[in-house]
Amino acid sequence: MARNKALPGPISRRLSDEVERGVGEQLASGRLSEFATKDTDVIRRNTERDNTTVLRPAFLRDAEKIIHLPFYNRLTGKTQVFSFRANDDLTRRGLHVQLVARVARDIGRALGLNLDLIEAIALGHDIGHTPFGHAGERFLNDVFHDRTGRWFFHNVQSVRVLDGLSKRNLSLQVLDGVICHNGEFEQQRFSTSDLAAFEEFDRDVVAACWEQGDEKISHLVPMTLEGCVVRISDIIAYVGKDRQDAIRAGLCTETTFDDGLGGAYNAWALSAFITDVVENSFGKDHIEMSEMLFHELARAKRENYEKIYHAGEVSGDFSHEMAWLFDGMYERVLKDLAAGDESAPVFRHHIKYCDVMLGHYGEAYDWERDLHQTCVDYIASMTDDYFMAYAEHLFPEAVELFPRREHF
Questions:
Q1: Whether 369 and 273 share a structural domain
Q2: What does the pLDDT look like over 202-215, one tens digit per residue?
Q3: pTM of the model as a whole
């Protein structure tokens, strides 16, 4: 296939001889890079639990903890981009986190990084995401911010799910990678931060994100190279895959995009971007892309926003109605919490459920401390189908708003 003028070039999708030789020698040695995070570097809140063993190294434990959470299982029922199309081959968020893990492991393996840490960050990075993708995130942020002045972002909520609602004693390195992953803010080069303790993380990172929102989040930098790899892998994993889904969904065609590759852009992007990151990062204390490939990644993402994300059904055709439903649902949940109505779904399906889960660890869900946060916890945890069912339960007229998935 001939290269379209929109693509930079010429681009080699092979490593230089020098880097290929270095990668091969490092893999043959079986040693990690001097810049990798060692299992012995793990930082936990409770140092009496979850000790490293030969069979279960520190960050492998974290990855296993994450995939066994019910919140992780719900990612299968949450929108990546398309919510109502009757096509079971379209990517859901559960597949997306696996694709990010795959891309990040490919890069991390070549760079000699800790693959267990990479996998744990990647699998957990979207666990706090809302139903209906980034549109749902925007709607929930709007109602939350209007009432509290605080900001909702899915990466911050992911840390709350892992560290607060689940209390699984995950490492600081994993939680830091999760909150710093936000792939909406691309950078050409990532150098690590000097974060080293939970006290600083809780005060200067998590609390600041709730209070300052994008002003803080857009400047976050991971404390590990593994976190940096996941962050760039997030964009690499979705930029081409979302194009394939847009074509499958009928929103775009093979000729919609300026590069001229259509759905084949995904394979091109995976090969080109992964190779470029390894080529420019091997043996270094930072993660970097070439200027040419970084500009191509940014260009492709901008084009996705213009031709896919802003045109999607939740962001476009139904945005006003969906915003109304998020607002109305939030008000009803807040009312039920204030009344202490234990027959309400927020109690039966969320609070009591979390209490049972936390009870195994001698913990309880402190839902009364901040009712607005509990509203956010509940709504963000919903799958698309649960949200629609609850919306129709609260507002019967909503049954006319949701397009039905008609296969035949």
A1: no
A2: 999 999 999 999 99
A3: 0.96
